[in-house]
Fold:
Amino acid sequence: MYPENAPHAPAVRAVEVHHPTPIQPAGVPVAAPLLPVQPGHVPAVASVVLPDGRVVTGYAIEPTQPEPVATKLAVSRVAVNVALGGVGFLAVCGGLLLLTTFIAALTALITQLIILAAVIFGGWIAVQVFTASGHKGGTTVNIRRAVIKRNHFHG
Structure:
């Protein structure tokens, strides 16, 4: 129905420039009858020929001016630097406090582990000493009563 790549000749049209007559807004009293007279300043109408031959006609639009930005109160660089320095100092103090707390907790943990190891090891030694004296083994020898025969002790 619509050929995509069909060759066609660009349309040739005459370019007309229209100068519009401004219309009085509603609600404004009119003192004198309107005469078909052009006002002093009428925006120019521009026409542009597109690559395919069409002509577009319209008014030139003036760029809008942005509203002026409200002026900011000037803050001294020294005041900003002092404030940032204070924040940095507080951050360092907080970090050192946390580090000190962590080191104290780690020291307490290590101390408790050492005490626990000493108690366990001391208990093990006490068990060994008290159980060995309860029954005489072959390794306990009273040297004063011993009789030496062929490099063997006999009690």
